[in-house]
Amino acid sequence: MCTDCPAQLAGDLDGTFPLFLAHHQDLVYGIALRSTKRPSDAEDLAQEAFMRAYRALAGYDPARIRELHPRGWLAAIVGNLSRDHAKRRAPATTELDMVADRPDTSSPGPERVAEQRETARLWRERLDALPLRYRRAVGLRHVSGLSYPELAEALERPLGTVKSDVHRGVRLLRESIDEEAR
Fold first, then answer.
1. Rounded mean pLDDT, 146-152
2. Where are the alpha helices (DSSP H) in 89-109?
3. Is 165 exposed, middle or buried (0-12, 13-18, 19+ CB in 10 A)?
């Protein structure tokens, strides 16, 4: 995590922004990919998120930038862009390049790759089956790794509310696993 980024951005936005981008690009892309299900759309959303972040930072005074919590702030930007994108777009379908990924020779065997993909698919389906409120909270907390304060900022909800949403979402996931086992 980049704890020095806000102070560095406050001092030299243009010189520090590439470092800021490098530290947070995986988080931003991951959130975008989970919401769009399409790598090309996720790349576009991530790029737009960073452009919006830069424009916003350019308009902030240095004191406000120093107080910034970048992970939650960026997650909020991507979340808002994702919602806007979903309103304008048809439902996502799986792209062929995602289905046809070929492991290199150092990868585990085909059986293991197939098992990993199946497990990932099952978890995606379980997560996608949650109500949006819980899906976003669980995804940002347990997939993207946001802390609860970052999560509260990203979702623009009180800390206690996001803790409750994560807890309820995890409980619903456990219940779905228990039902599958029966």
1. 90
2. 96-99
3. buried
